[in-house]
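User: Here's a chain of 138 residues. Predict its fold as tokens.
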Amino acid sequence: MVPLATDDALYSVVKTYNDTHNPKVDLKPFGDQSTADALGQVASGKYDVTMYPYAAFREVQNTKDGKKLAVSKSIYLKSAYLLVHKNQQNKQLTKDLNKEIDHLYKDGYLEQLTKKYIHENTFAFPGADKAYNAEFNK
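Assistant: Prediction complete.
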């Protein structure tokens, strides 16, 4: 696997995966590297695999090197969370935010956003309903 930059969120995802799974992914930290560098290293054969969101592949799929790449099915789902300072004054704010996010989810707007920017409906992934339904800031 292409070494991941330690300041990249993907490094944290793989490290968290390794904490609870076997066999472990051979995680090598790297100082700084662009997505293009990582994809190029796979296309050149230096490494077998790298891990990036599908949208990164979509940007290069029709280039000379991009045509040498293949993608896997999505392998990981992590729910995003809003960070709101937890105190009595923010209780109503948290309730209102959850209500509005739920509305955006139910009317399909969040699905449209994932299709537009991530190029796949992440709400259709196995387990997405459970990950999504986790209440924010419980």
